[in-house]
Specification:
Largest sheet: 13 strands, antiparallel
Distance between the termini: 76 Å
Strand content: 25-35%
Number of helices: 17
Oligomer: single chain
Low-confidence stretches: 114-164, 238-271, 281-289, 311-317, 424-438
Number of strands: 28
Radius of gyration: 29 Å
Mean pLDDT: 75
Amino acid sequence: SDHMENIYGYLMKYTNLVTGWQYRFFVLNNDAGLLEYFVNEQSRHLKPRGTLQLAGAVISPSDEDSHTFTVNAASGEQYKLRATDAKERQHWVSRLQICTQHHTEAIGKNNPPLKSRSFSLASQGSGNSPGVQRRPSQNAISFFNVGHHRWSAGQHRLSRVPILQPDHLVDVREMMSQAEGQQRDLIRSIESLPASGHLTSLDQDLLMLKATSMATMNCLNDCFHILQLQHASQQKGSLPAGTTISWLEPKISLSNHFKNGAAQNFSAEINKPASVREEQSVSEPGQLTREPEEVNPDEELEDICDDKEDDLGAVEEQRSVILHLLSQLKLGMDLTRVVLPTFILEKRSLLEMYADFMSHPDLFIAITNGTTPEDRMIRFVEYYLTSFHEGRKGAIAKKPYNPIIGETFHCSWRMPKSEVATDAGSNLSASSLSEQVTLSKDLEGQTELGYYTVKFVAEQVSHHPPVSGFYAECVERKMCVNAHVWTKSKFLGMSIGVTMVGEGLLSLLEHGEEYTFSLPCAYARSILTVPWVELGGKVNINCAKTGYSASINFHTKPFYGGKLHRVTGEVKQNATNTVVCRVQGEWNSVLEFTYNNGETKYVDLTKLSVTRKRVRPLEKQGPFESRRLWQHVTESLRDGDIDKATEHKRALEERQRNEERLRAETETPWCTKYFLKEGDGWVYHKPLWKTVSAVQTQQMDSN
């Protein structure tokens, strides 16, 4: 009873990638079996900001450090918490575990288990349930009388299993593997039905059955994973130092069962292509260095790859795949862990897509040529709005590859100086030009050339959540941009929405100005007919030093009427609240800029020249560079071999899971290569603002 008193105090609570950790006042209510939290102790008399039911919860100390622990409620909600030290963590964890055990046992005593009873789909044929009465024909039910006895038998075997001890997890895994096989047989039976006729593979009841069976197995997998974590935690507490934990693995993979809706063929390893075996190998962590690599732009060649995306048509031949996928989703569902069919993939990684936003380097470099802060802000808005058109490969909504953690992409652009817009050089004095050339020589070790070079590097710095960092710089013009983006995908019915959480920073070192900016949301519309891309949401661009800001609205098309891809915005001087420029038009067509002096400028994006990026040949790329990493998937997509592309993609994803599991076993943190964590964001390890500062200091010392 001494351990059942209510306890309270401050803990840090992790909210999300953007907000991060925040201090909150927590109260453990033992009588009610609740963990509640408030903004602070003073607001304790108010309604709690959040409440977790502890009955059935799992309290787990974290492997990250000695201060962190998680509370996983039976509802699926999770609190990630951090105490001030290891002693305080142990205090909270032990009290929470005692309270959880007490209320979980109380539920068991008050709710005795139901008597064992048999259940089969066949018995529903003559029943009077609403589900049976809903349709006059029972063909969809009676169809399963032939082979469903094995599935029912598997259920009976599972129902007779006694309460399991941790050392029985292997037996549970074997039973789950058998159930998985039976579930695949069920899916095969449904998908072998004709596409037309009285009973088809697209029958509403059969699609619901597929979704329910898949959801059941996914739920069992999640529960089993929690048991594995608990078992591993107990082992780590009792085994001698240096002992490694052997994770319990399924005899067959319990994820990624379907290749475009069809069951996978689990062939022997020896029958797999050599390229697939290479992708599945886990030799990289011990052999590959995570040291940053300086890519020489002279080794890069102008990109001749022109992967224009093919039209998906009306998706008729893939309709069963799409319907199968939709049958597993619900509104608002996070799609981060959902495996999408391979035929909707673009032939490039998301990291390369970010590089394609830089396809107009002339407009990017021209920003710093503006003579006034107002001019520079307007130039940045012009560059920003023209970047999305080339970033999308056509109007068809295809999805780039999800980058593997540690994946990188390098490229550069060469822009003839004569093609970059200037303002008669009025902002470039002879001394500043001389300084620019000297700085370029010091940083690049080269003589002045007739072109500017813009270098780009991107890296996938996190897997869950999926976060990418990218950085671009033009040394000669002393400007660079650094950004990190967390992509959050949600199912919206007949659309898929992608929120770009994160922030970018443009630095114009010549002027001492920094511009922060955000990114719009993206939507894939009409996913059952001809899918297309739409941007939506409000973004802001701010420069604290000059006091100029821009507000841009990407308008989604209303249900009735309205234009597609419409965008409006304005540039404002914050001190006087004066609008100095307005913009309207379509982000993939024509933009109209209207200045406060009455002048108007039109930008036709379809006629803007695109500068091809320069990329190293595949043979000179590292194993984790995007094009080399995904080369077999890309080649298979080019050849139209969807099954082969799916197999290569699955091999890469399996390798990522295996490496993640290995790091968890050995408690090895992931080390990024080019980007460093700073606060809630990620910053390039050697940004130009640090390099320029060091060079200028060196020049001052020498003088």
